[in-house]
Structures are given as C-alpha cells and as structure tokens.
Design goal:
501 residues; alpha+beta; Arc Repressor Mutant, subunit A; 3 domains; ten-stranded mixed β-sheet; three-stranded antiparallel β-sheet; 17 strands; elongated; binds adenosine-5'-diphosphate; binds magnesium ion; binds zinc ion
C-alpha cells in the first residue's frame, strides 16, 4: 500500500546571547562542568528569574525573518516534570493555553519533492535549556551518573511547524533552511554536533486525501542524517503496522543510530502531564511595536533575497548564487572579493572596464566554488580558517595576476595552495617560488626551437598533416619551463615555426 508521510518539526535553537535567559551566568560551550552556575539557574528556593531582553529580541528577529506575527503580550508558563537535569522540577516555557508565545504563524519556503513547498509555522516560543546528564564518558566513573548545569538556563528558542512536510528529504531541507536563516540573522550558531540546534520530528502516515493519522514523535535528533534515517525507518514501520491491519499508537520514540531503528521511550499511559500554568515569578512581557520595528530595520539581508540580488547584480546563474549564499560569511567573502577585483581594474592603466563586471564576478565565483572549496577540503580546514588564511583581497590579487598574464591559471592553483598553507599574499608566493610566467618572446623562442630540434620525426609528421601533435609540443614546452611559459604565446610560436618548414 502507498502511504503519504506527514511530518511536523519542533526545532530547538540555543540563542547566542552573552548570558542565560533568567540569570547573569555566561552562555558558552564546554568548559569545566558546573562552572557557569548560580543560585538562579540551579533552582535554589527563593530566587527570582529576570528575563534576558536580548533573548526576546533574538526571538523577535527570527519571527520577523519568517514572517511570523509578533505578539503584543507574551507570557511564561511552568512546564512541570521531574528529571535530574532540571533542578527546579519545572521548566519555564511558553504555552498557548497559559501564556502567549512570542510569535505565531509565518512560514518558510523550501525545495520540496515536486517544486517549492511552503511550510507554515505554528509558533516560535522561548524557554530555558535543561542541564546535561553525563553517563559513562571518558574521565568519569562508569558506575555513576553526573550532571553538568552549565547548560541550564541557556535561552532556547523553539520553532514549531505545521505538519506540512511530506518526506524525510523535505524535513532535511526544512531544517537546513531554518539553520541557514538562524545563522544569517546571527541568533544561533546552528551547530548540531554541539547540540545548539536540535530537532524533534512528528510523523504520521495516511492514504492520500485521508484525514491526518496518529503521530509518533521522535525525540532529540542531532544531525540531519539521523533525522532522515529515523523518519525513513518510522514511515516504514508505521506502514507495516497498517498493512498488517493494526493501528499506529501515539507515542514518543527515540532513534538508535547504531541499530538504525526507533524504539519507544514512553507511551500514552506514561505520558507526562505537564500541568502547565502561568509562572507567577515572571510578569507578562509587553512587546512595543516600536521595538519590533527597530529590530526589523536591523535585520540583515536574508539568504533568498541575497541570492536573488546576486543573480541580478552580478549576472550569476541561480545555482552559483545559491551556493554562494549558503552562508553569510561566504556571501560576504564573495562580495568583498568582487569589490576588490573591480577596484584593482580601476587602478590599472590597461583601459579595462571597472565596476562589478560580471566577468570578474563569475571568475571569483568559479574560484570560490571550485578551488577554494578544494583547498579547504584537502587541508581539512573549516571555512573560517580558510577565509582567514586567504582573505578576499588576496584571492582578488591572485585573480588579477592571472588576468594580467603574470602567471597562468594552472600555476595560480598551485599558488593558492601555498597561500592557504602560509597565509601569504600571492605576489609574495609567486616571487619566492619564481613562478612568474615567461612572456619574454626571445626566451620562449629559444625553448620552442630546442623542443622542435629534439623531435624531428614529430615535426615531420605534423607538417605531413598530423596537426594534433600541436598538443604534444605544447606539453613539451610546458614541461621544459615547469609550466611557466605563457601558453598563448607558446601556441602562437609553435604554429608559426611549424608552418615555416
Ligand atoms: P502541541 O504539542 O502543541 O499540542 P501537536 O502535538 O499537535 O501540538 O503538534 C506538535 C507537532 O506535531 C507540530 O510540529 C505539528 O506540526 C506536528 N503534528 C501534528 N499533527 C501531526 C500529524 N498527524 N502527523 C505529523 N505531525 C503532526
Ligand atoms: Mg509537542
Ligand atoms: Zn545562573
């Protein structure tokens, strides 16, 4: 039987604020366990939480980026449950029925299975992060469990979608898009390995056209790949249940990466009754329209807007523009580099047109998406390190050295390798390694004559009509000059001399 998958995601994003949501403790990753704690985030009796304004601002920023409707008043609720990493015995969160979340509605467009798909959002709310339990990790007694409260109280934004996603791949595309937006607007680093972005996936199946089926929630997946695999497994599992005439039971399941299967965490009987109620320690937040407008004015250009601008302004194909705008740093790098190349051209006496010549933009883009990525990959560098070693002005300089014929494109790639290893400017590398292209006619003529003299038979064959041998001669000259000969000049010289005989 063919079923349709119905998926809705609850995505948790840790916010990049300096301090925690209800106290002054620092927000950071790792470090000595329990070194960033205080009576408030440890949930001591009698303490009072004070809301971090920046956390609200970041949530509003996200709301505006996804066309959400920012509430005029928003309130916090207590979500009660017992767990060792939750010292108060409740989590301060927001809940539709006991306090309006900061944002409702909105949505984002993703590339769906068959064309663009709009995934509606239900709400975006703010809550506090729980602590971290440590079981059998290196350096800890395997017979004991430990708790690190450094994470407790880190501001957590939860973005809840409507069940508008139709396949595991679309779920990944959705999550990737959210991550991209979060990173662009600078509210979350999107690092799934470190857990600053996590996701619970709700999935049900139905025959197309039927009402929604009973859902299963898969908790806490921390990579796109696990999420896709978990959803694929779960869709298959539910289909088998239905095909056998059974019914899907609403439950929460966990994903086991080793076994590649989901298993039940709790079923309905053990389901939590969170007994949400308004938190009496926190006042209702009134969100002034003027503040929302201010935040909106500061919002950076969003990825799809930027992509469209790159296409228009620089005449780039959509695919390139999409790759360049994949993250903000890369798009910034691109524009900085193009700015430099046109600046250079304006300073030249070559009479070439300056400005955002689409030729330059295309060259920069080509080099970024092929050579820079290759170098990054080969050296196992992260993007940031690479961009520090090869800043945009260095790449721009390298490209103009090529454009001016100082070095060939091929040598340029070797120069880039050295630049990435050493952080040196291209001129320095070219100088040090003696890579300047030989464009001296006399010198080249000598080499060409030598090669032709060394291969009389091939010369005769060429003249008898085997003109394909030109490539062979080119190769010989290049080898003799360690690739430094100006290829265009060599080509001309060879043709001329071979025709002479
Ligand atoms: P809440 O937790 O707010 O009571 P739900 O449990 O209905 O709301 O929804 C939580 C998440 O589950 C949402 O992301 C929603 O899109 C998704 N969801 C709701 N119904 C279904 C369904 N039948 N199949 C798959 N996902 C669903
Ligand atoms: Mg829920
Ligand atoms: Zn604290």
């Amino acid at each position: 039987m063919n079923y349709e998958a119905v998926i809705g995601l609850e995505v948790h994003a840790q916010l990049l604020t300096n301090s925690k949501i209800f106290c002054g403790c620092a927000v950071a990753f790792g470090g000595e366990p329990n070194s960033r704690v205080c009576p408030i985030c440890l949930g001591m009796p009698g303490v009072l939480p004070v809301l971090n304004r920046r956390a609200v601002e970041y949530t509003i920023r996200m709301a505006l980026a996804v066309d959400g409707r920012v509430a005029e008043t928003s309130a916090f609720a207590r979500k009660n449950y017992f767990y060792p990493d939750l010292p108060k015995g409740y989590q301060i969160s927001q809940y539709d029925r006991a306090g309006e979340p900061i944002s409702l509605d909105g949505g984002i467009e993703i590339e769906g299975e068959d064309g663009p798909r709009f995934v509606r959002l239900r709400r975006i709310h703010l809550e506090e992060e729980a602590g971290k339990s440590i079981h059998s990790e290196p350096g800890y007694d395997p017979d004991l469990s430990y708790i690190d409260f450094n994470r407790t109280g880190v501001p957590l934004m939860e973005i809840v979608s409507e069940p508008d996603i139709r396949s595991p791949r679309e779920a990944s595309a959705y999550l990737a898009r959210l991550r991209q937006i979060l990173q662009y607007i600078g509210v979350c680093d999107g690092n799934m390995e470190e857990g600053s972005l996590r996701c619970d996936a709700n999935v049900s199946i139905r025959k197309p056209g039927d009402p929604l089926g009973e859902l299963v929630e898969i908790k806490n997946m921390n990579s796109m790949r696990s999420m896709e695999r978990a959803l694929e497994f779960e869709i298959e599992r539910q289909a088998e249940v239905l095909d056998d005439g059974g019914r899907v039971v609403r439950q929460t399941r966990l994903w086991n990466e080793e076994e590649r299967e989901t298993f039940p965490m709790r079923s309905k009987e053990e389901a939590h009754d969170y007994r949400y109620f308004p938190d009496p320690d926190l006042v209702t937040v009134e969100i002034a329209r003027s503040w929302v407008d201010e935040i909106g004015e500061d919002l950076p250009e969003l990825p799809d807007v930027r992509m469209r601008r790159l296409i228009e302004e620089y005449g780039l194909p959509q695919d390139m523009a999409r790759q360049l705008t994949e993250n903000r740093a890369r798009a910034d790098y691109f524009e900085a580099c193009v700015g430099q190349t046109s600046g250079d051209a304006a300073g030249q006496t070559s009479g070439e047109t300056a400005g955002k010549a689409s030729g330059d933009a295309r060259t920069v883009s080509n080099w970024m998406l092929s050579e820079l990525l290759r170098v990054q990959h080969e050296n196992r560098m992260d993007q940031q390190t690479l961009e520090e070693r090869v800043p945009p002005d260095h790449l721009a300089q390298l490209l103009s050295q090529i454009k001016e014929g100082k070095i060939s494109g091929k040598i340029g790639k070797d120069v880039l390798d050295v630049m990435a290893e050493s952080g040196k400017a291209p001129a320095e590398v070219i100088e040090e390694q003696g890579l300047v292209q030989i464009s001296d006619t006399g010198e080249l003529e000598g080499v060409v004559d030598g090669i032709l003299a060394d291969h009389p038979d091939d010369v005769a064959d060429y003249r008898a009509g085997k003109t394909k041998l030109l490539g062979f001669f080119m190769g010989q000259v290049m080898r003799a000059t360690q690739g430094k000969a100006n290829p265009k000049m060599v080509n001309e010289l060879l043709r001329k001399k071979l025709a002479e005989g």
